[in-house]
Amino acid sequence: QVQLVESGGGLVQPGGSLRLSCAASGSTVSRSDMKWFRQGPGKEREFVAFITGVLGLTNYAESVKGRFTISRDNTKNTMYLQMNNLKPEDTAVYYCYAWAGGIGYWGKGTQVTVSS
């Protein structure tokens, strides 16, 4: 069983930065591939970024490349999303996702609002 808890969301002005965290519980999570997704108002949930479990290889959606950085600290069972140069269109609920033991797990999300 894996539990994921996101934190770090909030209100930020355009051009600002936030760092999201996803704290994970479960014995296998440090070896699990993990992702960030987001769902904006009136939109479908979309992929944001991906990081592999052991090597930490990463991949990003085109819309966030060069602005967002995904990382993880396996000693703390925590994944991060550093978001820089935020835009109003980044406004969304951000969710973390882990694939562990053949099962996908979701967190409950954290709200990010980019507005002046």
Please tell me about this protein's structure.
This protein is mainly β and 116 residues long. It has strands at 3-7, 10-12, 18-25, 33-39, 46-51, 58-60, 68-73, 78-83, 92-100, 103-106, 110-114. The strands form two sheets. Strands 2, 4, 5, 6, 9, 10 and 11 form a seven-stranded mixed sheet that branches. The chain has a four-stranded antiparallel sheet with strand order 1-3-8-7, with no helix packed on it. The protein is globular, with a radius of gyration of 13 Å. The termini are far apart.
Largest beta sheet, briefly?
7 strands, mixed
Q: How many beta strands in the DSSP annotation? A: 11
Q: Structural class per helix/strand content?
A: mainly beta
Describe the global form: globular
**SSE string, helix = H, strand = E?**
EEEEEEEEEEE
Oligomer: single chain
What secondary-structure arrangement, pairings included, does this model have?
Blueprint: E1 3-7, E2 10-12, E3 18-25, E4 33-39, E5 46-51, E6 58-60, E7 68-73, E8 78-83, E9 92-100, E10 103-106, E11 110-114
